Amino acid sequence: MGDLGAGFGYLVKGQRWVGGRGRQYGFGLLPGLIALVLYGVALVALAFWADDAVTWATPFADTWSTPWPGLLRGCLTVLLWALALLLAVVSFTAVTLLIGQPFYEALSGRVDASEGADVPGSGLSLWRELWISARDSLRILVRVAFYGLLLFAAGFLPVVGQTVVPAIGFCVSGFFLAEELTAVALQRRGMEFRERLALLKSRRLLTLGFGVPLTLCFLVPLVAVFLMPGAVAGATLMVRDLTGETAREPDAVPDALPEPPADGVNGADGAPAAPTPPPAAPSRTW
In 19-56, which positions are buried (b, 16+ CB within 10 angstroms) versus exposed (e)? Predict the structure, then answer.
């Protein structure tokens, strides 16, 4: 159960990381704001056309007696809205990550650099990275849709459908949300989609501890936009744990100065290092 708390801890650390760096936070907000405008336009269009679309799709109800056509079409309109909102919640992260690929790549790299590590690079062109992100996001959406249909059917079971099934649904959404966010850092490390899934499954509780609270937060309107930069930062920190990379506290000052180079080894300027003085008169090469 410790991994659950650790996963949530990475979510908090990511928000703290961007919270202490206002410029990086503003930088990471841009893709979410763009995606929010696009989704807002789509939902407004749905508000105007939902009734007409349902009426067009149910011509057989025209011959029914009152009030059955209205009840049927009203229920279908509500269902259409519910499905649209569910799709918006599930796909928002994928669309935001696709729009913000260059932004989040840079943000994730800065998190790695703040940990005192070499920043890995995928070596791929921007268009190739966008194609891979779009393809992998589609794979995620297909899997979410498949599990969603199964859970929808299981929701008709008495008691279990109203208690256990929703909890499983949040776990499924949280797992795949974590996959999408960690993909930014793992793709830079050369990991393919199946390798990333296997890695996350090997630390399932850690993944759920990160993804499930974030999924619950994303259900609140506009929250996803403001949490996305910190979510990417936290996912990068979690990736360092998953891959076993050594880490230190961000921006921490080392406890001790580095030792001078050994005899015969060139220094940073390319000149031969001076011999190490005897213990009685220690000195350092700065």
Answer: eebeebbebbbebbebbbeebeeeeeebeeebeeebee
Q: Count other Cβ atoms within 10 Å, centred on residue 109.
A: 17
CA pair distance 97, 232, nearest whole angstrom? 9
Please check whether residue 133 is in contact with residue 181, taking contact to mean a CB–CB distance below 8 angstroms: no
* Cα–Cα distance for residue pair 109/257, rounded to 1 Å: 25
Region 17-30: what's the mean pLDDT?
Answer: 83
- Residue 108: which region, alpha, beta or left (left: phi > 0; alpha: psi -120 to 50)? alpha
Residue pair 122/129 in contact by the 8 Å Cβ criterion = yes
pLDDT in tens, 50-89: 788 878 888 887 778 778 778 877 877 777 777 777 677 6
The region of weakest confidence among 174-178, 238-242, 260-264 is: 260-264
**CA–CA distance, 20 with 40 (Å, rounded to integer):** 30
Assess contact for 207 and 200: CB atoms under 8 A.
yes
The pLDDT value given to residue 206: 93
Q: Contact, 255 vs 35, CB < 8 A?
A: no
Structure tokens given for 67: 């009030």
Q: Which residue has the tokens 């031969």?
A: 272
- Ramachandran angles phi, psi of 220, nearest 5°: -85, 125
Higher pLDDT residue, 8 or 283?
A: 8
CA distance 266 to 82: 66
How far is it, in rounded angstroms, from Cα 212 to Cα 173? 7
Residues in the chain: 286
Q: What span, in angstroms and rounded, lies between the C-alpha atoms of 124 and 31? A: 21
